[in-house]
């Protein structure tokens, strides 16, 4: 897993609550076994019309937000079935940070395992971010995980909380396999002793 670095991006404002995993990545695209290639199907039913053309009213089809690395969403983001394909699709599309007032537990935990930082903000602070990204053409957010800080180019700043262990894993690019391999010498030594 790559190391999480500071993210500097205009956020994409997905102004919806209870965004479930079937909207994030519809079930017909779950046949792949790799973690890659899911980004093209992210929010598929919202991004595209029945004829395959882009839905011009959907936020990610707006040229201002096409390259966003930060997704804003309303409460209970990632509810529904527990599919790890959802964070795979979000990360493959290019999102590195998701900001909401609340997350479904399984998606929240899966984000950390896929190099996505989920940040929980109060409703008033999230409303400010939504309004600012719509109002200001030059609007940018900076997410600094080392400092656990969000700031923008309009004077806003806020310190967020994150579990220290999860923060360390993101900063150092450690997933479950990497964490195990830290102890590779001890594992090998133990295995060699079993063979004797």
Description of the structure:
It is a single chain. The protein has 196 residues and is an alpha/beta fold. The protein has one domain (7-195): Aconitase, domain 4 (Alpha-Beta Barrel). Helices cover 33% and strands 15% of the residues. The strands form two sheets. The chain has a four-stranded antiparallel sheet with strand order 1-6-7-8, with no helix packed on it. The longest helix is centred in the middle third of the chain and has 13 residues, at 123-135. It starts with 6 loop residues before the first strand and ends with a helix. The mean pLDDT is 93.
Write the layout of secondary structure elements.
Layout: E1 7-9, E2 11-14, H1 21-24, H2 44-47, E3 70-73, H3 85-93, E4 97-100, H4 105-112, E5 117-120, H5 123-135, E6 141-144, E7 149-152, E8 157-159, H6 164-172, H7 176-181, H8 184-195
Parallel strand pairs: 2-3, 3-4, 4-5
Antiparallel strand pairs: 1-6, 6-7, 7-8
Short description:
With 196 residues, the protein is an alpha/beta fold.
Structural domain count: 1
Numbering strands along the chain, what is their spatial order in the largest sheet? Answer: 1-6-7-8
What is the highest CATH level, the class?
Alpha Beta
In DSSP terms (H or I, runs of 4 or more residues), the helix count works out at 8
- C-alpha-based Rg, rounded: 18 Å
Write down how many β-strands occur, each being a DSSP E stretch of 2 or more residues. Answer: 8
| The CATH fourth-level homologous superfamily | Aconitase, domain 4
| Helical content class | 25-40%
Global mean pLDDT? 93
CATH architecture: Alpha-Beta Barrel
Distance from first to last alpha carbon = 35 Å
Biggest sheet descriptor: 4 strands, antiparallel
Structural class: alpha/beta
Overall 3D shape = globular
**Strand percent estimate:** 15-25%
SSE topology string? EEHHEHEHEHEEEHHH
Q: Which blocks of ≥5 consecutive residues have pLDDT under 50? A: none
Say what the CATH topology is: Aconitase, domain 4
């Amino acid at each position: 897993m790559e190391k999480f670095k500071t993210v500097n991006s205009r956020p994409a404002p997905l102004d919806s609550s209870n965004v479930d995993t079937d909207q994030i990545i519809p079930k017909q695209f779950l046949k792949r076994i790799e973690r890659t290639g899911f980004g093209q199907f992210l929010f598929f039913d919202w991004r595209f019309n029945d004829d395959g053309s882009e839905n011009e009213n959907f936020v990610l089809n707006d040229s201002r937000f096409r390259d966003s690395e930060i997704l804003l969403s309303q409460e209970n983001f990632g509810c529904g079935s527990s599919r790890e394909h959802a964070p795979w699709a979000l990360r493959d599309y290019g999102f590195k940070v998701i900001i909401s007032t609340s997350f479904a537990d399984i998606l929240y935990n899966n984000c950390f395992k896929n190099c996505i930082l989920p940040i929980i903000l109060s409703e008033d602070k999230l409303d400010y971010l939504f309004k600012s990204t719509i109002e200001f053409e030059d609007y940018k957010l900076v997410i600094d995980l080392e400092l656990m800080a969000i700031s923008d180019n309009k004077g806003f700043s806020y310190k967020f909380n994150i579990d220290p262990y999860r923060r360390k894993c993101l900063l150092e690019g450690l997933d479950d396999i990497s964490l195990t391999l830290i102890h590779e010498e001890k594992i090998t030594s133990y295995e060699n002793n079993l063979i004797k």
